[in-house]
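Good morning,

Attaching, inline, the backbone tokens for the sequence recovery test we're adding to the shared suite. The designed sequence is right after.
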């Protein structure tokens, strides 16, 4: 409370009085006051989430119509591990530069992508929906007041190193992959197969290795003939041409399920100009 008062250039008692008046007006307790200090109540946590959203929209309006060039504006993206999302981010940063803008790109776990956008840590999140995970992910989005915007539909591809024994195949089925480790991204202790970043996550693979970053996954593809199942949309500029995708061949037990890749925003929010450009870059890259 003292630090908040300092930032607002008012006294601490004045701030405390204003907060109590607000609590009386809206009929909830935002903060719990005890002898040990002040903490946020569960109702207060919900209120603060909405307050951040209101402030973010005000900040976007100020960015559009204010000439305060000295203020560094912030823009963050949280994404599952997609190289195309990184490439679109690179092109966006090039347009705006880093002198007046503070950028953040977070390649992270699925639940953190949702949490980051839900709490406005990032303005945009990138993830995919499928027939398998649709119900679970949609509920998580609804609980965090988020909306999903479709970018593209993709079939599954097998992603592997160019010298992999199966690299020259026209298509690859799961039976051919049994001798090689299936690579996937960790989703944390609370993660479930519904939060997996890989399509066909419900299949039981004989050999599996988990990792938490794209660079390590690429090294495991090269060193262990590992593979992963992905959208087939790979940036050669960022990942080099040493890694290739081969169409996944479905069978009676394992259909080539469609991945619907899209971006998430706060429900009803107005995207900032930087967010609009980032979305334009995503669409331009995917159209290729």
């Amino acid at each position: 409370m003292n630090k908040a008062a300092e930032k607002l250039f008012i006294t601490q008692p004045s701030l405390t009085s204003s907060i109590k008046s607000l609590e009386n007006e809206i009929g909830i307790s935002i903060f719990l006051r005890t002898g040990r200090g002040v903490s946020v109540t569960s109702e207060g946590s919900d209120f603060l989430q909405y307050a951040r959203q209101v402030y973010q929209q005000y900040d976007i309006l100020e960015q559009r119509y204010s000439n305060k060039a000295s203020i560094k504006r912030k823009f963050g993206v949280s994404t599952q591990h997609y190289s195309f999302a990184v490439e679109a981010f690179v092109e966006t940063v090039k347009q705006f530069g880093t002198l007046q803008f503070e950028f953040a790109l977070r390649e992270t776990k699925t639940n953190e992508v949702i949490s980051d956008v839900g709490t406005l840590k990032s303005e945009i999140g990138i993830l995919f929906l499928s027939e398998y995970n649709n119900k679970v992910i949609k509920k998580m989005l609804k609980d965090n007041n988020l909306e999903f915007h479709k970018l593209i539909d993709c079939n599954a591809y097998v992603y592997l190193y160019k010298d992999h024994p199966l690299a020259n195949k026209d298509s690859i089925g799961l039976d051919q992959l049994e001798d090689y480790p299936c690579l996937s991204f960790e989703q944390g202790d609370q993660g479930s197969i519904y939060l997996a970043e890989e399509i066909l996550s419900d299949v039981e693979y004989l050999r599996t290795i988990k990792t938490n970053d794209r660079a390590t996954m690429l090294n495991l593809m090269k060193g262990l003939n590992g593979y992963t199942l992905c959208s087939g949309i790979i940036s050669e500029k960022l990942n080099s041409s040493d890694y290739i995708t081969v169409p996944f061949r479905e069978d009676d037990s394992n259909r080539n399920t469609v991945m619907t890749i899209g971006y998430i925003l706060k429900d009803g929010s107005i995207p900032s100009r930087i967010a609009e450009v980032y979305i334009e870059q995503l669409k331009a890259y995917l159209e290729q």
